Structure formats: structure tokens, C-alpha cells
Amino acid sequence: MKKERAAMANDLMVKDPELYNVDLAPIAKEKRRWTWVNYSTIWMGMVHNIVAYETAAALLSQGFSVAQALLAVIIANAILVLAMWLNGVAGAKYGLPFPVLIRSAFGYKGAQIPVLLRAFVAIFWFAVQSYAGSLAINALFGLLIPGWNSLSQYAFLGLQANVAIAFGLFWILHALVISHGMERIRHFELWAGPMVIIMGLIAVVWAVNAAHGLGPLFTEPSHLSPAAFDAAFPLAVTGLIGVWATLVLNIPDFTRFAKSQRDQVVGQAIGLPITAILFALISIITTSGALAAFGSAISNPVDLLQRFHNPLILVFGALTLIVATLSVNVGANVVSPAYDLVNLFPRKLHFVSAGILAIALGVLFVPWMWFNNATTIYDVLGAIGGALGPVAGLMLADFYVVRNQHYDVEQFFERSGDFRYQNGWNLRGLMAFGVGLLGAFIGLFIPSLHVLYTYSWFVGIVASFVSYALLMRPYVVATVIPEPQEAEL
After folding, report:
1. CATH 1.10.1330.10 assigned to 2-381
2. pLDDT tens for each residue of 128-187
3. What is the distance between the alpha carbons of residues 129 and 132, in angstroms, rounded to a whole number?
4. pTM of the model
5. Any idea where this protein resides (predicted)?
6. Quick one: which of 134, 191, 388, 403 is 20 to 30 A from 86 by CA?
7. Nearest 5°: CA angle at 49, between 44 and 52?
């Protein structure tokens, strides 16, 4: 990494230092080493986590039957993988991250708006996931360290002292993983994702044995009337999409390392919908087994582990949850804000220092205030989807309609280039973004249009896509731009 930074030092003297540094520069084709295996395992690691486990189980608590809950998961993930395929193409083609690519739609100054929005959302989720992982560490220490649980009598800002220490230790683990950049993350995810799947399947074996079958939840009918189901189902799908709304935007941060388009397409097809559906099944079967074994549907895996009163099960289970949460947090919630912060301060930050700053900011979100309120989490998920959908719509319209799938890479790093627009702001892009936000959120303020908010992510992405394509017609590329020479940048 040090040699690579030194080799590119001369470029930094030529390119605008406010728009360009080593981490934002396009990756040369010969340095793109991620195969479909890497994308499969990184998605395995991100999909299998405590919050995703609780999300699937939470659908049942809302009255969904198992079949209805699984249908919501299948539809949401089919839509997600399609959006990620489409938005990942530019990253794989040009080796550029999201904060650079978005300059085309918003202008090099206007791009900071979606970049900040996405960073805010990713850091929020980092905080929530970190708190979830710290609960597993706290449970493990409670078993191994005498007197550990007695620390709970002390609290600050609503956080018990023992959980606060566990939270700090989990924070340090994140710092260690990201301390050597994307290569360490790639190697970590290679074993972390498959490990979580194996432990999940072990939990399924226990649940089937405890319930002498799939358990009572699979015979439980839906508790929603047809009208209530029609209202709740699209909200559930939108909420599930909201979990990964940031990844729809920043998938180029990962696909820029792809050896080929085929690798990112195949890897994501295996890693996202297939493993997400499998993990939802693991969550539901395990919760069903808990209902049969303990008399209650325990949706929090940490609480479930503590019901066993078995040191061996608790140790291995807690370690798995720690690895699972660390895996999703690094991949989904540290990589994206790290690039965003580098883009904001390219003179002062590089990927590792920006990643450390991002996880430091996550503490300010006081996640323990959010984690145990399922209703609030779903409200937040809907809002996240509504806010980020319009950005995805602009990116897709810009690349596929306005630019005809061709970018001149040099222009991304020049103030006087194609993406200068009006002093760095693409007013047409901002107007289309506003149209998307209006479509996504107008149902919150006008009761007769509430159905639009139910489909906020879909409304936002379609409204911004169409409005941007129409507003940018004068800019539509009429001639094919020569393919970029990545190695020369």
C-alpha cells in the first residue's frame, strides 16, 4: 500500500487535490483481484447478522405467517440484487468508487449532498450493529468473568457500564480489521461469511430437534386480515430494502475491485438473494424451535443463547455472533463512509484514517436508544429507503440514459471538466433529486397520498430516474466517449 501511494504521488501533483487522491483514483485493471468467490463471501458476511436475524423474526411478530414473511424477503432481495447489478457496472468498468461516480449526476460540488446523506446513514447503521455485537460480548464476559454482571448497576446516558466496556472492545476490533485497508477486509470476509452459515445450520439442527420438526411457527396461520396484509406487505418489502439501501448506492466501492463484470454479477447473485433467503429461514426455524423449547418466540439470538445455561454453547454462539456482526459492519457500514469522508477531505484523509473517523462518529448515535424498538427501526428503515432511492435513480439514469454507459474518467478529477455544470452544481440533478424526495415523502404529509410513502423507495427511485432523464436531455451524449485508460490516471 505504501509503495502504491508513493508511486502515485506525482499524479497528485497534477490532479486537483480537492477532487483526487490515491483512494479515489481509478484502480488499474491488473490490480483488480476480486473474484465471484470474494463477492459471495462478503455478502454472506453482511447478510448474516443480528439485526437481519431479528428483522426476519420481527415480521412474524407483526402477524405475518412464515410463507408471507419469506415472500417479503424473496421479493425484497430480488429487487436489491437487480439494483446492485445495474449500479455496480460502472464501478467494475472504470474502477471508481461511489463518491467519484456521483459527481456526474450532481456536479463535483453538489455530489457532497448525497455523499453526506449516505455517510450519515451508514454511520447510523454502524452504531446499531456495533451495539448488537457488544451485547454478545457482554453475554460472553458475563459467563467467563466473575462479577462482570454486577457492573450493570452503574450507567451513563442509559448505557450500563458492562455493556459500555463491551461496546468499546468491539469498537477496537473494527479498528483492527480496517487498519490495513480493503485487502484485509477481503481476507477477513473470506472465512467470516462461511463460518456464520455453518453456525446457523447448527442452530437449525438444534431447532428441528427441539421442535420435532420445523416447529409451531410453520403451522401458525397469518394473523393479518386481507386488508391489513395488503397494507403491511409493501411496507415490509420497503423496510427490508431499506436495510441495504446504502449498499445499492455504494456497491461501486466493491465492484471497482472486480476482475470482470461476470465476477461481480455471479458473486452478488450467490451472495445476496440466496444467502439472505437462507438466513431468513435459519432465523425463522430457530425462533420456531425456541418457541417449542422455551415457550416463547425469542427473536434476539443473544437472549436465546443465554437460555441454554451451557457455557460451551454460549461461548461458541457468542463468538459467532461477534464475527457475524463485525463482518457486516465492516463491509456495509465502514467501507462506504470511509470513502465518503475521503471524498470530503481528500487532502487530509486516506481510507484507513477515514474509516477510524467514521466508527468514532458512530458512538454519537447512542444506538442503545434505537436497538430494542422494532417499530421505530421499521420507521427508520422506511425513511432511509425513501431518502436514498432518489440518489440511486439519478445514478442509474445518468449512466444508462444520459451517458450511454460511457464516462470520460479524466473529467471526474477536473474542475473545468464535464461535471462542472454551474460552478460545480448540476441544478438539473438537484431538481430531479428534489422530485424524488417529494414523491417518496409526500405521503407523510398528505393523508390521501399515504400509499406513496408505503412504496417510498420505489416511488423515489422511479420519480428521480424519469425526471433526471427528461431534465438532462440537452446533455445526452450523442457520440461514444473513448474508453478510459485506467493505468494512466
Report:
1. no
2. 888 888 988 998 898 889 999 999 899 877 889 999 999 999 999 998 888 877 777 777
3. 5
4. 0.82
5. Membrane
6. 191
7. 100
Contact 136, 170 (CB under 8 A): no
Please tell me the distance from the alpha carbon of residue 52 to that of residue 201, in angstroms, as a whole number. 16
Q: For residue 428, what is its C-alpha cell?
A: 438539473
Distance CA 169, CA 144 (A): 16
Looking at residue 385, what is its pLDDT?
Answer: 63
For residue range 228-272, list pLDDT tens digits in order.
898 889 888 887 887 777 788 889 999 999 999 999 999 999 888
Amino acid at site 105:
A
Mean pLDDT over each residue of the chain, to the nearest integer: 84
**What is the reported pLDDT for 12?**
43
H-state helical runs in 15-65: 36-47, 50-61
> How many other C-beta atoms lie within 10 A of the C-beta of residue 260?
14
Distance CA 370, CA 381 (A): 12
Nearest to 99 by CA among 341, 332, 328: 341
Q: Output the pLDDT for position 372.
A: 62
Regions of the chain short of the pLDDT cut 70: 1-14, 51, 193, 370-382, 385, 476-489
Domain ranges of the chain: 2-381
User: What's the CA angle centered on 434, arms 428 and 439, to 5 degrees?
Assistant: 130
Q: Whats the size of the chain, residue-wise?
A: 489
Other beta carbons within 10 angstroms of residue 312's beta carbon come to 8
CA-based nearest residue to 250, from 332, 177, 327, 175: 332
> Residue 18 gets which letter from DSSP?
T
Instruction: Report the Cα 376 to chain-centroid distance in Å.
Output: 18
* Rounded Cα gap, residues 316 and 279, in angstroms: 18
Q: What pLDDT is attached to residue 488?
A: 39
Q: Give the separation between CA 53 and CA 243, rounded to whole angstroms.
A: 12
Q: Whole-angstrom Cα distance, residue 280 to residue 115? A: 31
- Among 378, 438, 141, CA closest to 241: 378
